[in-house]
What we know:
Aminopeptidase
Amino acid sequence: MFRVVSPREADVSDSCRLVKLLCTCFNDACGLVNYACSDGLRGLFSRYPHYEPHLVFIAEEDGAIASTLHVLNRIIRLNGNAVRVGGVAGVCTDPRFRGRGLATGLLKYAVDALRGGYDALALFTTFGGAAYAIYRRVGFNDFYIREYGVASVMDLPKANYASAAVDEASDSDADALLNLYNKVTTNLDGPLVRTRDYVRDHLINATWLKLTRPGVNAKVVKLMSEGISAYALVTGVDNDGLLNVEELVAENCEPVLSLVNQLVKDTGAKGVRVYAPLAMLRCLGARLFTVQSVYMLMNLEKIEISNVRDRYIFRVDQW
Length: 319
Ligand SMILES: CC(C)(COP(=O)(O)OP(=O)(O)OC[C@H]1O[C@@H](n2cnc3c(N)ncnc32)[C@H](O)[C@@H]1OP(=O)(O)O)[C@@H](O)C(=O)NCCC(=O)NCCS
């Protein structure tokens, strides 16, 4: 039988082996090994202030960390209400200990421990896989499956106004980006309630994205016309010549087209791959593709989710 030791603040002495274990489960955690093994978790967390170090759950067997998961504090908007969500992430069992009920047991333990602190628990996983089956059995249900759009430059509608300037965003734009984000997301269900600090760290500085994808050239660009009328988080042009846009926010189609047309011109991209709410993908005339990843919710406080409207969770908020 396994022994569950949690919840407790992850100890610095755990950090190296914990992150090494995560690296065996998730490629994108491997970039964190150097931080976790040199300065310990505190060094890692100081680089990423929105990660919650005190919500790491661990199952040990024979003194080894056999299974782990952690929880991130999130607030999402549903039906106009702010809903407290525990974001379950990094569910991982050491390959030597798999298939023995560790992940299921640890998750059930965490759900019980977290009751009372959150309105709901949520997670992202690959639809239909081994982990998906575990989550369904423990009580998580499908909430949302993301689509992204791809548009070829040949088919991209042209923008009508040319007076807008495109520039890289900086920390001082955090309030303006947050205002725009708030306006655009009022009619959506699921988006994170963001703060200015979150926008600065998570979006403008793309801290987590850069930590987990070493070498990625992430930057936020803004479209200026009477203030910021659109912004995009871009991570460069891939080998197919597609410009990758991880987040795109604008009040209506005109600034979307202006910004995207300018970006493809500046980068010489042949097309764009865009993660954005459906309304913005339609502006681009993009062809839609479904990501085989599902956002699942477990309701802890009987929040109303049956009649929610347009569901959307931004990609950078996928912890
Ligand atoms: C998914 C994962 C956490 C499961 O851990 P675990 O401790 O083996 O889980 P459990 O023992 O509680 O397994 C529960 C079920 O999954 C099945 N299962 C576990 N690992 C499996 C695998 N690699 N392939 C196929 N089935 C698997 C078990 O057979 C069991 O099914 P059953 O109860 O119907 O027999 C583990 O495989 C893992 O770390 N995978 C890589 C990371 C990952 O994908 N995490 C999920 C991210 S959302």
